[in-house]
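One such given next:
>
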Amino acid sequence: MKTLVIWDIHWLNVWEKLIQEDDYEKIIFLWDYVDSFVAPDVDILRNLENIIQFKKDNEDKVILLLGNHDIQYIWEWNNCSWRRKSMEVSLSILFNENLSHFKVVHKEWKYIFSHSGFLNEWIEYHKDVIDEFYPAWFMWDEIETLNDILQTHHKQILFECWAWRWWFNKYSWPLWADRQETIAWWFIQWIIQIVWHTAVPTIDNKWHIIYCDVLEHWDWKPLILNIK
């Protein structure tokens, strides 16, 4: 299955050209659709509206994941490093009206896609919450069930960030984890994580995690995977 992976948009509409370059069977948008230092509000809003409509028109083909810049407009008390004050209301309405079209994690074959990566320790630390969704021991084949937490009163565990980004939680969840965490605490041989969030000089494959937030990401060389 030929899969196009499009990373941090931050308002850019380059995705419209990328999706036309080949007949992809799956297209995965990897978060951070908003927040820009240069784009006007109207362009940011219109681009996100177009992405959501593209998802609605291709429900089974297109996957929209959330990033830390997006989640702060869904629940206002979850602050990112910065947000665009002038768009707080409009983006909050747009995200929340279409929340069912977004996910926090997606699994295809042996690949797990999330904004910053899963930690075994984070899952174990919140075992009491996760047990409400899993009657038996947590299985990585069922990881997408964690998307259900978005709709519950437990969603606060989804916003945790550790001291690397000046927060105070013991572990970060998959929208805030940094390479310093995931590279030290993750190892499952049959799973490959695809993550962004932490900037790296080049695409870096360490211990079955592929870090793709290259410093030259504005050159827009998309990740293309051939998934069985």
About this structure: Residues 2-226 form a domain with the Purple Acid Phosphatase; chain A, domain 2 fold (CATH 3.60.21.10). The chain has a mean pLDDT of 78.
